[in-house]
Write a structure and sequence with these properties.
about 110 residues, 4 helices, mainly alpha
Length: about 110
């Protein structure tokens, strides 16, 4: 009886070894015959390649400057110190910038009719 169990155990081990060896042989055969095609098909579904699309960069939309920002630019071009003019990070206010620009005759004085 022991001899029969020993022979059955050996037969099962040989069959399992042959199954593993056959599976490994089949896997390596498929891998060497179709190495790129299998990978690219599975990856192309999930990953889009940026090299296939040509995307032109869109420039950001320019916003229009507020009147105070325009006055600050004019003051800077005229050489008027508008930033930290009062100390302690206090900038010139709108009416102060207008007065400074009018004093330099950068802005024409409007006369009411």
């Amino acid at each position: 009886m022991e001899e029969l169990l020993t022979q059955a155990t050996v037969a099962i081990e040989l069959l399992s070894f042959s199954y593993v060896a056959g599976s490994l042989a089949l896997y390596t055969h498929q891998r060497f015959t179709h190495p790129v095609q299998l990978k690219s098909k599975s990856r192309s579904k999930h990953i889009s390649t940026p090299s296939t699309r040509i995307v032109e960069p869109v420039p950001p939309a320019k916003r229009s400057l507020s009147p105070v920002e325009q006055l600050r630019q004019q003051c800077q071009q005229a050489g008027i110190k508008w930033r930290d003019a009062h100390g302690k990070n206090k900038h010139l206010k709108k009416h102060e910038m207008l007065e400074a620009l009018k004093a330099l005759n950068v802005i024409p004085i409007r006369r009411s009719a």
